[in-house]
Design goal:
The strands form three sheets. Strands 1, 2, 3, 4, 9, 10, 11, 12, 13 and 14 form a ten-stranded mixed beta sheet that branches. Strands 5-6 form a two-stranded antiparallel sheet. α4 links the parallel β9 and β10. It is an alpha/beta fold.
């Protein structure tokens, strides 16, 4: 699927952060459905593993589960997690639930939160035949290296948070992304200066910063040469840009 274009004809990929968490509970089936029906076909979602090794969609390490209190995702089975209300009557889904419903109707940015989740996600990507419709992204270089080793055909994106960004300069971060053979460079939007952008573009990387919710920030980033924007409300940005 091709990205959208801005008013100047530049191709821009609008990606729904955590499925589009401004409108619906994050990483929920309702969020993914809302996003797709509002003209956004790229979603970013967070992947962890349940106690029985099933990739599930949740950002935090812990979740409030009925009768269990504040429990770790890693210590709870996938079936138990499917009973957890994550807001608005939505329950916590597995990656397979997402792919069963949407398949190749959506494009996916799987943010890998646990190192041993890489193999599991790639198994599902291949099972559902969505290699051309997804990206494996992570803050962990080890996760991206593992993805490169076992599935070099699947696009990778290197995430940089604000803390890491304060410790390294743009050239070092870009160098790391290139060493991991990433296609995408995914910094927090406040980190992306013109210097960082020029270094990434010169290195052959495409830039998609996160999480961009204001039009003025989006315009500055587009002027820096980004290829896309990860947003809590991507349809809003798409309409205004």
């Amino acid at each position: 699927m091709m990205p959208d274009t801005d008013k100047n004809g530049k191709k821009i990929r609008y990606v729904a952060h955590r499925g589009g968490m401004f409108y619906r509970p994050q990483n929920s089936m309702a969020a993914f459905e809302y996003t797709l029906t509002h003209g956004i076909d790229w979603i970013e979602c967070d992947v962890r593993l349940s106690s029985d090794g099933i990739p599930v969609l949740f950002h935090d390490e812990r979740v409030q589960a009925p009768g269990r209190g504040n429990c770790e995702i890693r210590e709870t089975t996938a079936e138990e997690l499917r009973t957890v209300d994550i807001g608005g009557g939505q329950t916590l889904p597995a990656v397979s639930d997402l792919l069963d419903k949407f398949g190749n109707k959506l494009n996916y940015d799987f943010d890998i939160k646990v190192l041993d989740g890489v193999d599991k996600v790639i198994e599902l990507v291949r099972e559902y035949g969505i290699q051309e419709n997804c990206m494996i992204s992570s803050f962990y270089a080890e996760a991206l290296q593992r993805s490169r080793e076992i599935a070099p055909e699947i696009t990778r994106g290197y995430l940089i948070d604000r803390l890491t960004g304060r410790l390294v300069n743009g050239k070092a971060a870009v160098r790391a992304a290139k060493l991991l053979k990433c296609k995408y460079f995914l910094p927090h939007f406040k980190l992306l200066s013109q210097d960082w952008a020029e270094a990434a573009l010169a290195g052959g990387l495409r830039i998609i910063p996160w999480t961009v919710n204001r039009v003025e920030d989006a315009q500055r980033l587009i002027d820096c040469g980004v290829s896309g924007l990860i947003s809590d409300r991507p349809d809003y940005l798409k309409a205004l840009m």
